[in-house]
Amino acid sequence: MLFVCYPKCTTCQKAKKWLLEKGMEFEERDIKADNPTKEELNAWYRKSGLPLKRFFNTSGMLYKEMQLKDKLLDMSEDEQLSLLATDGMLVKRPIVVTDEKVLVGFKEKEWETL
Fold first, then answer.
1. What is the pTM of this model?
2. Cβ pair 103, 45 in contact under 8 A
3. Could you report the per-residue pLDDT of 36-69, keeping only the tens digit for each?
4. How many CB atoms lie within 10 A of CB 13?
5. First to last CA, the chain
6. Strand extents, DSSP E, the chain
7. Is 102 helix (H, G, I), strand (E, B) or coil?
8. Distance CA 30, CA 85 (A)
């Protein structure tokens, strides 16, 4: 299992603690130091079944500075994936990637399915 996070993020810290308490093994990846590629993001998006907008960190400073709330409406899926691949701080986290599923953000009830 891959755990993609930003170590300074309190939600990511909570999610990591939860995984450890459940005795789950995972590979940790710092999203700022090792941003997901466009190909990875596309694969995760397809596997997640979620709308692509859920992969954007809508509460992040960069998202707000770039005024993406309005701009995303006029962007194609390909353009959005390319944008997400430019900076890990645009990507919602944490992300958990397993063979079967992809979870974005930490919601304990969703994560119970792991």
1. 0.93
2. no
3. 999 999 999 999 999 999 999 999 999 999 999 9
4. 15
5. 10
6. 2-5, 27-30, 95-97, 102-104
7. strand
8. 14
Residue type, 87: D
- Of 1, 4, 3, 2, the residue nearest 85 (C-alpha): 4
Instruction: Count, in order, helices (H) and strands (E) of the chain.
Output: 6, 4
The type of residue at 49 is G
Place of tokens 């891959």: 2
Strands 95-97 and 2-5: antiparallel
pLDDT in tens, 70-83: 999 999 999 999 99
- 93: CB partners within 8 A, 6+ apart: 4, 5, 6, 9, 11, 12, 31, 57, 104, 105
Upstream peptide bond of 36 is cis (omega within 30 degrees of 0): no
